[in-house]
Amino acid sequence: MRFFYLGMKTELLIVKETANSYETTSHLKGMHPNRLAFDPQNEKCVYCTTNGDGLFKSEDGGESWNQIGQEDIHSSKVTAVAVDRNGVVYAGTEPSHLYYSEDIGETWNEFKEIQYLPSKENWRFPPRPETHFVRWITPSISNSNHMGVSIEAGAFIRTEDGGETWKDRPEDSPKDTHTLLAHPESSGRLYSASGDKGYA
């Protein structure tokens, strides 16, 4: 049996495949869900970001949802979420701040070093140049210390030591990475679909 999660403008739809048809239920009504992430250690544990209502978590595959991170994540516009192979959860916001939780979303800390990267002075979202946001978070599949993060727009940044230090965008890397993916059969490689460099 398969499930499909569809983030719509004002709700999250969960479509359940049955023997002869599909069943659809609506969740997070009136909100704007925009990113989903599943815990690889627990397929029933799902995280969903919203544009204005913060971050939500489900522990039953999407049947029920609870808001999390209100005390520690200092923006209601949560724009990216990911979970690494060890169950560490990462969340990005608008404006661009990056957080992590080592206790399945109960408490959060911030990777503050990214605020001092040289490229930050050029981070801006073209339709609203007064702001910018974390677009994509991609933990490594093979190395839990490695992670790539894209900022909309302005940078692809990365860490190779679990967030202790961060490397700013390489000179020839995309500034406008829309999607950043890893593949389990291509260790050490990231795939970027971007607005300024195409697909690499």
Secondary structure topology:
Layout: E1 3-7, E2 12-17, E3 22-27, E4 33-39, E5 42-50, E6 55-58, E7 66-68, E8 78-83, E9 89-93, E10 98-101, E11 109-110, E12 133-139, E13 147-152, E14 155-159, E15 177-182, E16 190-194, E17 198-199
Antiparallel strand pairs: 1-2, 2-3, 4-5, 5-6, 6-7, 8-9, 9-10, 10-11, 12-13, 13-14, 15-16, 16-17
Describe it for me?
- With 200 residues, the protein is mostly beta strands.
- It has one domain (3-174): Methylamine Dehydrogenase, Chain H (7 Propeller), CATH 2.130.10.
- 0% of the residues lie in helices and 44% in strands.
- The protein contains no helices and 17 strands.
- The chain has strands at 3-7, 12-17, 22-27, 33-39, 42-50, 55-58, 66-68, 78-83, 89-93, 98-101, 109-110, 133-139, 147-152, 155-159, 177-182, 190-194, 198-199.
- The protein has a 4-stranded antiparallel β-sheet, with no helix packed on it. A 4-stranded antiparallel β-sheet has the order 8-9-10-11, with no helix packed on it. Strands 1-2-3 form a 3-stranded antiparallel β-sheet, with no helix packed on it.
- A hairpin with a 4-residue loop joins strand 9 (89-93) and strand 10.
- The radius of gyration is 17 Å and the shape is globular.
- The termini are far apart.
- The mean pLDDT is 92.
